[in-house]
Amino acid sequence: xxxLNFSNMMEEVIGVKGISERRLENLRDKIESAYKQIVxxxxxxxxxxxxxxxxxxxxxxxxxEVRDDSDNFLILGIGGSALGPGAILxxxxxxxxxxxxxxxxxxxxxxxxxxxxxxxxxxxxxTTVNIISKSGSTAETAAAFMILWDEMKKVLGDDAAxxxxxxxxxxxxxxxxxxxxxxxxxxxxxxxxxxxxxxxSPVGLLLxxxxxxxxxxxxxxxxxIHEKCLIHELWQNPAVMFSALLYLMESEEKRNINVMIxxxxxxxxxxxxxxxxxxxxxGKLGMGMTPYPSVGTTDQHSxxxxxMEGPEDKVIVFIRIDDYGADITxxxxxxxxxxxxxxxxxKLSELIKAEEExxxxxxxxxxxxxxxxxxxxxxxxxxxxxxxxxxxxxxxTGFLMGINPFNQPGVExxxxxxxxxxxxxxxxxxxxxxxxxxxxxxxxxx
Length: 446
Prior knowledge:
This protein is α/β, with parallel strands linked by helices. The chain has 18 helices and 10 strands.
């Protein structure tokens, strides 16, 4: 089971820049309100809480078909539809395409150069394409799908639809309609599931199975942390404590930047996934906390100086790994060179753990706050726990802030301007706004 160590957030450990037990106790009324909204299911978007208990039989069936007949698996999606699968791929199967099949490509942008390279690298006759879009109308994903559909039709004709899987709304939307009309395989994203909370739905589970890992283990991990995140006691519930501490640091100490630093290359994309979850859920109505993706030990040599002696606006969240599942002993290559010989005989896992613990201590000595999530191993079970823990914590934090953590009005505004610029019906006024804005920018160039 993953554990949260928040010692270095507390006044008793790091001094006056920490949070006192009294301040946490004074937050109990707000915590109680947040807790009730979750257990009483005040929001339909809390459906993500049910995902760890869903059946995976259909997902496993489709994944087996993909493994049997595909050399390549191409995901088309953006935001949570790509970040979740990407985090799973990097955590469970590092350097996957160099050693395993089917090879996995995640196209999560509309950079033409990237898609052109993917098309050149893959034989479409042996490629399965998974389009992930709840509405089916997300511009980036729709554009990529239209291109892949056209290319598949060129090589497969009427059989093109057999090479597509649509993960989308089970009842309505553009993609659902196309999938039904063309008899594509489909997997559901239910109405109550917001994209950034969808990793434990078919959005992430299909990729997990395609690369050869048991999605039931991902869900088992989520189920086990689920119970801890519903404990009705601040000092026993890790998700509530994580949320309460960061909320107090932001609202009372103006520490509104949250650095996420896992000490593992395999969890680097988990940081990226967390950043979308945290930023899009909490950044609204003039409020929010800025997530800051990082990775140890690499960023000790690029960012730690800023954290140690720069503006006091950050909280560092370490992710510490107990068992890396592999190890290498450092040989006695240069016994006469003091600057290297001291490392001989030690293991790389020993060094990375020492680096993490040393960085924790160095930050604590400057009285700057941090906390640590301890992960026993990087495997399917514990990855499921991390996903579900952060989803719980984000939800609690939104409710403590008094906001809706499930909408994204700012993102929708940007989408509407794009629709206008690209000529979508009903968005002509947005195109006019863009043209007016262009005129204002003409003079301000060098």
